[in-house]
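Here is an idea for our session: we take a single protein and study its fold together. To get us started, please write out a protein record for me. Start from the sequence, derive the C-alpha cells from it, and show both lines together. Go ahead whenever you are ready, and we will take it from there:
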Amino acid sequence: MKKTLLFSMLFAASAVFTSAFAGERATTFYPLQTLMAANKTPTPIPNGVKIENNVVVSWPAALIPEDRQIVLPEGIVGIGYQAFAETPLRNIVLPSTLRTISKEAFFASALQAIVIPEGVETLGEAAFSNCHSLIAASLPSTIKNMGNNMFMYCGKLNNVQLKEGLTAIGESAFFKCTALANIALPKSLESIGDGAFNGCSALEEITIPNGVTEIGNNVFDECSFLQKVNFPASVTKIGRSAFHNCVGLSNVSLPEGLKTIDGLAFYGCTSLFEITTPEGLELLGASAFEDCTSLASVTLRKGFTVLNQKAFKGCKALQQITLPEGVEELKPFVFQNCTALTEVTFPSTLKNIGLNALVNCSSLSKVTCDATTPPALKGNVFNKTPNGKTLVVPENSIAQYQATQYWGAPSFATIVTGINSLEPAQDQKAGVYTLQGVRLGTKAIWPSLPKGLYVVGNKKVVK
C-alpha cells in the first residue's frame, strides 16, 4: 500500500512538471519533502545483484522490480560506479548509513526524483548525468563539493535544493538543464565551475553568494531567458563567455572590486542596454561586449590600459563613447560596425589605434583626441566613416595632426581646438556667432544649437 502511494506521488509530480513544461517555462515547485515519508521497507535483494563490503556494485536493469522502485537497507555505505546506470529505476530510497555515491552511479537511469540523505559526503562526477526523467533533487549539507557534470543533460530537472555547507559546484554541473527556471545558491558557496549552468535556457534570475570570487568560463553561456544577475562585492573576475548569448539580460551592475572581464564575457547579450565598468578594472577582454546590439550607454572608468579587439564591435545602438585616461592602446576592430556612433573621445594617454578600429562607423561626425602627439594608426582606422567629420585636438597640436596620415584630410574635413561644452558663463550677454560673423544670441542659446563650429568669446568652439 505504501509503495503504491509513493508511486502515485511520483506520478503526480511528473504530471505537474509536464503540465508546467508544456507552457512557456516550467515554474512549478515540486515538494521534495513528501518523498521523505515514503515506504521504508527494504527491497529484497535478488540473485545477480552484486554488493561488496556494504557497497552496491551493480544492480542489473533486468533485476529492477516491476514497480521500478528500490528501498536500500540500512547498512549500505556506498553506491558504486554505474551501479544503476541505464536502468529503468524510477525511484530509490537511500539509507541513512550511505556515505558515498560514485561516478555515474545513476547515469541515464529513469529516476524521477532523488533525495540524498544527510551523511553522504562524496558525490561522484556525473552521478545523475543524462537522467532525462529527473524532475527534482535534494542534496544534504554534508556534501561540500558537487562533482563535475553532476546533472548534465537532465532536461526536465525543475527543482533543486542545495543546502548550506556546499562550497563548490563542479564544471558543467547543470549543463543543458533546460527546465531549470530558479535555483537558490547557498551562502556557503565559494566557487562555481566552468560551464556550470551552460544552456539552462529557462533560468530567469541568479544571485551569486558573497564569497564567490570568480564567475568561471561559460558558466551562464546560452542562458537565453536570464534577465537579472545579482553580483556580490566579492567577485573580481568574470570569465570567458560567462554570459555569452544571454539574449534576455537587459541590465547588469558590475561589482566595484571587479578586476577582469574576460573575452566574450557578454558577447551577444542583445537586450543589454547599459553598462558601467568599475574603476580599477584591469582587463576588458576581446569581444567582451561584441554584438550587444541594444547597448546604448557605456561608461568606462579608469583602470585598464588596453581596449582589446572587437570589445564593442557591432554595438549598433551606441552613440557616444569616452575612453578614460590611462588607456594607451585600442586593438583592431574595437568599434567596428557601431553604425549609430556619432562621437568618440580619446584620452591624452592614447598612443596606438589598431587596424579598422572604427571601420564602418557610418554615423561618426566628431572625434576628440586629447593626446598632444597624434596616436600611431595601423592603417586607416577611420575607413568607411564620413569624410565630413570634425577632429578636436589640443591647442598647438593642429599642425601635427594635419601632417599625420589618416588624421588629416580627407578623413577629417575640419581640425579645430576647442571644448565640447560650455561652462556657465559669467556674462550671459556674451555672444555666440557663426564663422561668418552672424550673431546667434547669448551663451544661453548654446544648448539649443545644432552640432557645428561656432565663435564664442573670440574663440572657435565645436559643439
Remarks:
- Residues 296 and 317 are 5 Å apart (CA to CA).
- Residues 2-21 form the longest helix (20 residues).
